[in-house]
Description:
The protein has 3 helices and 24 strands. By secondary structure, it is of the alpha/beta class. The chain is globular and about 55 Å long.
Amino acid sequence: MQIYSYFCRRKLNITNKRVQMNNESVRQKFKGNPKLKRLVDWLIMNQVETRPRWYVRMLAPLYQHRGRHSVIHHSVRMDTPPYRQFRLGNYSVIESGACINNAVGDVIIGDHTRVGLHNTIIGPVTIGSHVNLAQGITVTALNHNFSESDKRIDEQGVNTTPVTIEDDVWIGANAVVLPGVRIGTHSVVAAGAIVTKDVPPHSLVAGVPAKVIKQL
Length: 216
């Protein structure tokens, strides 16, 4: 039985890698053909609501990866177009009122992880296993560009820096995790903290901006 499970996981990993490669090759083709990119983007994304169109959202369960016994509550806003990855691990839960957005980067969530009520996660974000996110948390890898003073901010596009939350992390209510941050394993982020830089493993951080209070 263990051998069978091993080969099943291996086959799944190979398939996922092939899908990732195919997605990347498609994105590269779109970069070389701006008109086609704009057309496909218009067909997939509602340009006013900036979220996938209703028919794309209906098909989402077919292209998302949802692990065994995982739960996504009905009121979760899943802004997950098919040209980026969304993966939810086994026994993981996304609570009511949360928003998951992978439009500018993959969102990968491990096993036995709980995304709390009214969380917002904007990719590219990788969250490990046995992670607990309390209520009202924002984890974002996205920033708006604003350096060109002769242009409106909404004309200058966005940039992303990946966020990583390692295994066995607890983040308290209303915390904010900003782009480029890595939170090490077995760490705790206090409620209301704003995390602007990496958190070492086995650390408790708190404050605005968050600072290491003690080692765990």
